[in-house]
Amino acid sequence: MTHPQDQHPPQDARTLPARDHDASEALLERVRQAAATGTALRFVGGGSKGFYGRPVAGETLSLAEHTGIVNYDPVELVVTVRAGTRLADLQAALAQEGQQLAFEPPHFGEDATVGGTVACGLSGPRRPWAGSVRDFVLGTRMITHDGKRLHFGGEVMKNVAGYDLSRLMVGAQGTLGIIDEVSFKVLPRPAASATLRLEMGLGDAMARLAEWGRKPMPITGAAHDGETLHLRLEGGASSVANTQAQLGGEPDGTSFWTQLRELELAFFSRRHDDRPLWRLSLPHRAPPLALDGDTLVDWAGAQRWLRSELPAATIRQHAAQAGGHATLVDRDRAHGVDAPFTPLSVVMDKYHRQLKAKLDPKGIFNPGRLYEGL
């Protein structure tokens, strides 16, 4: 039984405080100039998630110098941080107080930033049990299209003028405004953890997970690689020990969960497999899809990674029939498909365009990052 060391930031980052530098005035001025000239801006933090989405044609606006923890109250479980702060620096500060970002965000590189984490809205293996990025964002300060700083939400969840803009910024990839600061709810790190390997097929694994899901077990990770069910247990020492004894299996002392979160397993490597990589979001009890290719199952079945040469339309049709959707996520083939995200329905496209027109009427914020014309 061990503490969850594979979720810590790199060792050399733990003792480094987040550098404090407020670059908001320079960012505001740059946006005002862009708005006056109609110049499109392409936002960059650490560049670690540049592969996720469509390419943006515009002048680069870096947020990497807008850094620092603005406020951290471990007792109230709230931290406010500037968007350019390295994710590793924030996690190091939280770890010193025995706390964490429970949604387990992926880094995809040592320069990953807080702003990029929120903008992309990606969560790690703990997401089904802890919640998503959106669930932990309490408030944001954003820079609007006319070069103003507006604060939405706060250190308690709050709607403003009918829009929960704090949460709308999650996953918007900068198309609605610039994330200036973010307030997160943080949680204590688990007292103990254990990782297990159980050799079984996918069908048996899914049946076991459905059974265990009806019991109060401290499972915070469940993935199947085609041959083995990988489990992570986290919680009180006695709860973890009792569950480990009940489930059996072999202890897994590898860095599997870190490699899964960071897409560093051999399954995700282009050197290992040159077929396009798809992320399928499905109901967790959806049966295996009849798609040619190889699959790695995460989130106890709700997230499935697919290596396949099938056409995008075929993959998306099967995902939709199962009640989900499919996204092209290929770090080695950046922007290899013009539409990496599932095309919007007519109704959803209308709402997206209305929201874009309201918050970015001149179309200067990361235009086209999510969809053409948005």
SSE arrangement:
Elements: H1 24-37, E1 41-44, E2 59-62, E3 69-73, E4 78-82, H2 87-96, E5 99-100, H3 114-120, H4 127-130, H5 133-136, E6 137-143, E7 149-153, H6 165-168, E8 178-185, E9 187-188, E10 192-199, H7 202-212, E11 219-224, E12 228-235, H8 237-247, E13 250-251, H9 256-261, E14 277-281, E15 294-298, E16 303-307, H10 312-321, E17 325-328, H11 346-359
Parallel strand pairs: 1-2
Antiparallel strand pairs: 3-4, 4-8, 5-9, 6-7, 6-8, 10-12, 10-13, 11-12, 14-16, 14-17, 15-16
Provide structural commentary.
It is an enzyme of class 1 (oxidoreductase). Keywords: FAD, Flavoprotein, Oxidoreductase. InterPro entries: FAD-bd_PCMH (IPR016166), FAD-bd_PCMH-like_sf (IPR036318), FAD-bd_PCMH_sub2 (IPR016169), FAD-linked_Oxase-like_C (IPR016164), Oxid_FAD_bind_N (IPR006094). It comes from Chromohalobacter canadensis. With 374 residues, the protein is of the alpha+beta class. The chain folds into 2 domains: 5-188, Uridine Diphospho-n-acetylenolpyruvylglucosamine Reductase, domain 3; 190-336, no CATH class. Helix content is 25%, strand content 23%. It contains 11 helices and 17 strands. The strands form 5 sheets. The protein has a 5-stranded antiparallel beta sheet. Mean pLDDT is 90; it is low at 1-16 and 155-162.
* Backbone structural class: alpha+beta
For the biggest sheet, the summary is: 5 strands, antiparallel
Average pLDDT, rounded to a whole number, is: 90
> How much helix, percentage-wise, in residues?
25-40%
Q: Please mark out the parts with pLDDT under 50 across 5 or more consecutive residues, or reply none.
A: 1-16, 155-162
- At CATH level 3, the topology of the largest domain is Uridine Diphospho-n-acetylenolpyruvylglucosamine Reductase, domain 3
- Total number of domains: 2
CATH architecture of the largest domain: 2-Layer Sandwich
Radius of gyration: 21 Å
Q: What best-fitting shape do the alpha-carbon axes yield?
A: globular
Give helix and strand order, one letter per element, not per position: HEEEEHEHHHEEHEEEHEEHEHEEEHEH
GO molecular function, one term: glycolate dehydrogenase activity
Pfam family, one: FAD_binding_4
Keywords: FAD, Flavoprotein, Oxidoreductase
Protein name: Glycolate oxidase subunit GlcE
